[in-house]
Amino acid sequence: MLKKISAVLVGLFASASAFALPPATIADLTTGISFTDVGLGVLAVAALMITFYVLKKGAVMVIHAVKSM
Fold it and tell me: Which residue, 31, 34, 32, is CA-closest to 42?
């Protein structure tokens, strides 16, 4: 019985929220996203990965140079 009541309540609230919001357009959805911030984040992560790669390569070169002495 409780499951039926909760199912009816969920159905009522879901349908009420669907009618409460106006239909969204693509322009409405894209105004909330700043693509410059996303691009900056991607570039920052790429720079971090390149930095770690260069540091690792440098450390390997130094270790090989020390071992060859």
Answer: 34
Q: For the chain, give the percent of residues with pLDDT over 90.
A: 38
Rounded Cα gap, residues 50 and 33, in angstroms: 27
Structure tokens at 58: 């440098």
pLDDT, tens digit, 9 for 90 and up, residues 20-44: 566 677 777 777 777 777 888 899 9
How many whole angstroms from its chain centre is CA 32? 15
Separation CA 33–CA 7 (nearest Å):
35
Using CA atoms, how far apart are residues 52 and 50, in angstroms rounded to an integer?
A: 5
Give the torsion sign (CA, 17, 22, 26, 30): negative
